[in-house]
Amino acid sequence: MDKYKKDIEKFGFYRNWGDSKEYLLSNPHLACEDTANYLTYWCVNLQMEEKGALMKQVAHQTIVMQYILELAKTMEVPPIACVPSFFTKIQTCDEKYMQGFHSELDAFIGRIERRAKEKTDKLMAEIEAVKAQRMEMEVKMFYSLY
Questions:
Q1: Nearest by Cα to 72 from 19, 45, 33
Q2: Which residues contact 45 (CB under 8 A, 6 or more apart)?
Q3: Distance of CA 20 to CAs 1, 16, 41, 93, 129, Å?
Q4: In this model, does residue 136 exceed pLDDT 90?
């Protein structure tokens, strides 16, 4: 996936439905589970870096990809074959479909925020443990001198 990291990240920055559609059609290799997984991973890292607005943008594109993948699974076709129909549907959909999309997006953002907090808390606990070990070693070294 490292080979396509820049391509995936570029997709993550798109805000316009039409631009997203054209980019995926021009880069059909991105319409896959690996792209959704990388976007999810990137979202967690962005949240940990306290880049909430960018995380929400990338989360939006992650849900776009997940919808395409789910549509492909339902229709039993390759994901790239669902790109045009997904974007047509999302741009012309009824309010209920769009509410479902936004509901899924909000739930995903919540999961990302929780996961990033868990990872940050764990990292901070590890840092505190290392600091405590160092302090203990320094105290032992200090007292061993006397």
A1: 33
A2: 116
A3: 19, 6, 20, 17, 45
A4: no
pLDDT tens track for 46-59: 999 999 999 999 99
Six-digit token pair at 55? 């995380």
Residue 48, class by beta-carbon neighbours within 10 Å (0-12 exposed, 13-18 middle, 19+ buried)? middle
Residues 21, 42: Cα–Cα separation, whole Å: 21
Rounded to an integer, what distance in angstroms lies between the CA atom of residue 46 and that of residue 52?
7
Average pLDDT of the residues in 59-65: 98
Q: What whole-number distance in Å separates Cα of residue 12 and Cα of residue 54?
A: 9
Q: Cα(28)–Cα(110) distance, rounded to whole angstroms?
A: 29
Half-sphere exposure of 116 (CA within 13 A, CB side): 20
C-alpha distances in angstroms, 10 versus 23, 81, 131, 134? 9, 21, 39, 43
> Could you tell me the pTM of the whole model?
0.84
Give CA–CA dist 85/48, Å, rounded.
34
Position 108 confidence tier, pLDDT thresholds 50, 70, 90: very high
